[in-house]
Amino acid sequence: MAEETREEPTGPSPRDIKQIDETTLGITWTDGHESVYHVKLLREKCPCANCIDEWSGDKKIKPGMIPDTIRPLNLKTVGLYAIQFDWNDGHSTGLYPYTLLRELCQCEECKAKSAA
Amino acid sequence: MSDQDLQVKVMAALKTVMDPDLHKNIVDLGFVKNLNIDNGKVKFDVELTTPACPVKEQLKSECEDKVEAIGGVAAVDVNMTATVRASEHSQPVLTGVKNIIAVASGKGGVGKSTVSANLAVALHQTGATVGLMDADVYGPSIPKMLGIPITPPKGAGNSKFYPHEKYGLKVVSAAFLTEEGQPLMLRGPMLGGIIQQFLQNVEWGELDYLVIDLPPGTGDVQLTLTQRAPLSGGVIVTTPQQISLIDAEKGVKMFQQVKVPVLGVVENMSYFVCDGCDKKHFLFQSGAGQQLADKFKVPLLGEIPFIPEVVIAGDAGMPITLSQPESQAGQAYRHLAGQVAAQISINQSQEAKKVGAGFELAWKG
User: Fold this and answer.
1) Which residue of A has its CA nearest to B227?
2) Global pTM?
C-alpha cells in the first residue's frame, strides 16, 4: 500500500528555486518540469485577500495597475506548500501555493496548453 | 575458514535480510555496524531508524538464523540499536527536534488527546526521546491525562521556558498559561501567538519525536503550525461511524493542501470488548477508518478498542499504555507507535530532493 501513496498525492513541489534574470523566476519541480515566470505576472496574480476579494472573488488588481518596475526584494517558502514574496511596492501578504504556481507556469509548453 | 573469508560470507548473508518497510536489504541501508569476527564468533550491531520499529524482533532473528547457517560460525551476537533520523528542514524553530507528528481530526470528541498522550507514551517506551505539545488551546486536556498539576512553566532566561516533565515525556500545554479551570478566551491572532511561543520559546532539548495534539477543526492553530513548524507528518483520528468521516476527510485534505504528508488514519473507539464474554462489539458499526484510509490511499495505522479502562486511566492521570500495558488498548497503542515511526522512516527514505521549509532567496535587481 505504501508505494501507491508515493506518487506525490498532493502534486509536485519545487526542487530548485532560482532567479534567471532581472525579471524572471525559475522553478524546477520534483517531477522534472522547469517553470519560468515573469515577476510582473506573479505580482498581478497575487492571491491574497487584498488583491482578490474574499467573498466575491473579484480581482482588485486591474490591468495596468502594476508597474513594469515591479520586482521581488526577497522570497521565501512557507511551510511545505507555498512561496511568499516581498515586493518592492511594499506588498507581501500573498502566499502562492505550489498548485497555483504550477497553473501560472509560463514555459512554452504550458503557455501553448493554456492557449489551446 | 579464516575470519576474513567469514566476514565476506556474513555480509553476503546479511544482504539477503530485507527491511519489509523500506524494501531494501539492511546492508545497503547502512544498518549493519561494528561487525567483529573473532575465531568464528560473529558480533555486529543493527542500527534501525527508529527504536519503535515494528519488525525489530523479526529482523533480529532473521539475522541470527542466516548468519548461524554459515559454516564456520561458532556464535552470533546481534545487538539491535536505533538512531532516529531527522526529517530535513532548515526552519529556525525546533532545531533539536528530529520529527514532528501532528495528531488531528476534523471533529471534536474522537479522542484525539487520548490518542496523542498514549502515542507519546508508547513511543517513549521503545526508548525514543519524546515531547508532547498540547496545542488544543480551547480545551487543553493533556495535563489532566498525564496527572501534571497546573503550574506555570519554569523560565529558562531570554524569554524561553522549560517544558514540564512526566513519565519521561516533555510536555507543554496552554493550560499551564492560565489559572486552573479558567477558560482561555482568545481571538485568532492571540492563538497564533501562543503556538508561536510553543514553537520558538520552549527549551525542548534533543527530541526524536514531538507529538502535537491539535485542536479539532481546520482553523488558526492548524494553519500557524503547518506554516511555521516543519511537520514530518499528520495522523488523522476518526471514530468508526460514517458521520465522522465527513469531518475526518477535511482533516486529511487540510494536510494535503499544505503538503504535510498524511502518515495514516487511527480509528479510535473501534470496538468494545465485553468483560463477560470477551467478544468484540462494534458499537458504532465499523470500517470508517479503513474507508478513509482507502479513499486517500494512506495506511490504517491502528484500531483502538473502546474499553472503560482507557477512560479511567486518562482521568487518573496515567495513560493506559503505562497503567495497563498488556491490555488490548495498551497493545493497540504500541502497535500504533510502531506504525507511525515506520511510516516516517519510509517517507524519509523515499523523499525526493526538494526545497525545504525555510528556503529564502534575495532578488538581485
Assistant:
1) A79
2) 0.82
